[in-house]
User: Which sequence fits this backbone?
């Protein structure tokens, strides 16, 4: 309690630092395998990213047997996914940031633009 992240991303006693905010602007490049996103503004040194993939037919997030941790502890964008969904299927992708002082969120479920419960999955550490 009362920690802040140091220059190397380690926690040191002091003013609390919040977990990273949400990852924004997740998108694929024209090659359909390179997944990019905007780095979290103001994230301290040592912030890494976790990328999760699942099947659209297995909503909600956290309940599908097909969910995988595509890659964890990424130092920043981009990452890639060469696997293609089966015909008539689609994948969803979520990213979060984390550092020694906290773990960000995969965002929240929304209904008609109104934020709902936080998305939770246990496939990435």
Assistant:
């Amino acid at each position: 309690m009362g920690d802040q992240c140091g220059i190397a991303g380690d926690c040191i006693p002091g003013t609390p630092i919040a977990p990273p905010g949400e990852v924004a602007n997740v998108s694929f490049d024209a090659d359909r395998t390179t997944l990019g996103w905007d780095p979290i503004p103001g994230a301290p040194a040592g912030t890494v990213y976790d990328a999760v993939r699942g099947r659209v037919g297995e909503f909600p997030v956290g309940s599908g047997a097909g969910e995988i941790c595509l890659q964890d502890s990424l130092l920043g964008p981009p990452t890639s996914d060469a696997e293609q969904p089966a015909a008539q299927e689609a994948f969803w992708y979520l990213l979060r940031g984390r550092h020694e002082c906290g773990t960000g969120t995969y965002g929240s479920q929304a209904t008609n633009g109104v934020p709902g419960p936080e998305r939770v999955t246990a496939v990435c550490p």
Summary: The domain at 3-118 is CATH 2.60.40.10 (Immunoglobulin-like).
